[in-house]
Write a structure and sequence with these properties.
With 299 residues, the protein is α/β, with parallel strands linked by helices. The protein is built from twelve helices and eight strands. The relative contact order is 0.16. Bound molecules: 3-hydroxy-3-methylglutaryl-coenzyme A (HMG). 3-hydroxy-3-methylglutaryl-coenzyme A is lined by residues 16, 19, 49-52, 54-56, 80, 82-83, 85-86, 89, 101, 112-114, 141, 143, 177, 179, 207.
Amino acid sequence: MSLPKHVRLVEVGPRDGLQNEAQPISVADKVRLVDDLTEAGLSYIEVGSFVSPKWVPQMAGSAEVFAGIRQRPGVTYAALAPNLRGLEDALAAGVKEVAVFAAASEAFSQRNINCSISESLTRFEPIMDAARSHGVRVRGYVSCVLGCPYEGKVSAEQVAPVARALHDMGCYEVSLGDTIGTGTAGDTRRLFEVVSKQVPREQLAGHFHDTYGQALANVYASLLEGINVFDSSVAGLGGCPYAKGATGNIATEDVLYLLQGLGIDSGIDLDRLIAAGQRISTVLGRANGSRVARARTAG
Ligand SMILES: CC(C)(COP(=O)([O-])OP(=O)([O-])OC[C@H]1O[C@@H](n2cnc3c(N)ncnc32)[C@H](O)[C@@H]1OP(=O)([O-])[O-])[C@@H](O)C(=O)NCCC(=O)NCCSC(=O)C[C@@](C)(O)CC(=O)[O-]
C-alpha cells in the first residue's frame, strides 16, 4: 500500500497528557497550551474531559479551559464524555465534538470507567443519540488494543468487535490505543489488518504510547496499513495511571519529523510546535519527552 499524501494529527497533549501529570496545572496554563497548539497549526486538539473529578482530578475545570481558549475556525476542539452527564456538561461548555472511550480488555474497562465493555457500549447509546440531535460528532476510542496492564496480551480479535460496535453506533472514527505502549510494528500491522475487516481503514486512527520505545515504528507500520490519522501529545506529555511505568503518548514533534521526512503533509509548523512543548515542559518542571525537541533545543 502506498503512503498517504496527507496525515491528520490529533493532538491529545492537553487531555491525555495533562490528565496524567502529578502536580496541579492552572486553567491559564492549559489555555495557553491549547492556544500555542492552535498557533502551531494543529487542526484537531483534544482540550479536556468531562469526567468525574474524583477519578481524574487534572481534568476538573475543562469547561473553564473551553471558555478561555481562542478557537480558530476550521480547527476541532474536542473533549472526552464517558456518560450522558459528561455530554451535557460538554454541550453546556459549547463543545462541538466529543469522544467516548471503551476498552478491549474487561479488567481495564472496570478500572477505567467502572463498568464492563458491554455496559460501556450500552452507556454510549444515549450519548450518541443526544450528540446526533445537537449536531455534535462523536469519535470513539478503544484502549488496550495491544496489551493490558491487568490481562497481558490482547488479541486483534478482541479489539475488532469493540471497534465495530463503536463504528456501528455512529462514531465517525475509531482510535485504537496501545495504552501501555508494549505493541510492536508486527502486532500493529496485524491489528489493522484484522480490525479493518470490520471498520474501514479510513475511519481508523492509531494512538500509541511510547513505553517500550516502539511508538514511532508503530506509526510507520500503521502508515503501511493505510492509516492516516494519529493521536500524539506535544512534548510526549502523559503516562497512564493504570499502567506502571507507562510513558506518554508518542510526541507530536517526533511524528511530525517522521512525516516531513516521508514528504507527508500535516499543515503543522515544527518550530512553533517545539516552542509549545518547551513552554509546557517548563511549566510542569519536566524534561521534554520529544527526542526531536531535545535535539533542536540542545546547547
Ligand atoms: C465514567 C465514570 C464517570 C463513571 O463513574 P462511576 O463512579 O461509575 O459513576 P457514578 O454515576 O456512580 O458517579 C460517581 C460520581 O461521579 C460523578 N460523575 C459521574 N459522571 C460524571 C461526569 N461525567 N462528570 C463529573 N462527575 C461525574 C457522580 O456525580 C458521582 O459523584 P458523587 O455523587 O460521588 O459526588 C467514571 O468512571 C470516570 O469519570 N472515569 C474517568 C475515566 C477517565 O477519564 N479515564 C481517562 C481517559 S481514557 C484514556 O485515557 C485512554 C485513551 C482514551 O487515552 C486511549 C488509550 O490510551 O488507551
